[in-house]
Design a protein that fits this description.
5 helices; two-stranded antiparallel ribbon; 121 residues; Cyt_c-like_dom_sf; elongated; 2 strands; metal ion binding; single chain; binds heme C; mainly alpha; Immunoglobulin-like
Length: 121
Amino acid sequence: MRKLTLVFMAAGLSLLGGCDIDTVAAEKPTAAQRGADLIAEVGCGSCHTIPGIQGANGLVGPPLDQMARRIYIAGKLRNSPDNMVRWILNPQKVSPGNAMPDMGLTESQAEDITAYLATLE
Ligand code: HEC
């Protein structure tokens, strides 16, 4: 009898465990989380030091800490979400000849990256 109870308890627990995993898998990442993943994936950190991104310690471009509080982007554009997307998509158009290459990103990828940079207060 006692053994049976234990078996039922174990079954119950593993069911609960299964539920937990499902819930986590169903949670959608936020734009900022997707942006952080993209930043790591495309390698912005080879040129920039970026808080919260592993291995992002490049010294080619300026560090992106406190990006949310800066007034200008690359000394050219007022720092707004729209302008940040513009910069990330097309740094060579905004500032021809600067050392940041056009990264070949889509607009929605640039928006996600912008959402992450906006968390850097
Ligand atoms: C090959 C090096 C390189 C790579 C790769 C690179 N950048 Fe840059 N980035 C630069 C340089 C250099 C500047 C400075 C441009 C200027 O001021 O004219 C810059 C400027 C910036 C700025 C403006 C910073 C400020 O202080 O105004 C932001 C934001 C930025 N980059 C984001 C990114 C993101 C996001 C990525 C990845 C999608 C990226 N960069 C990839 C070199 C790079």
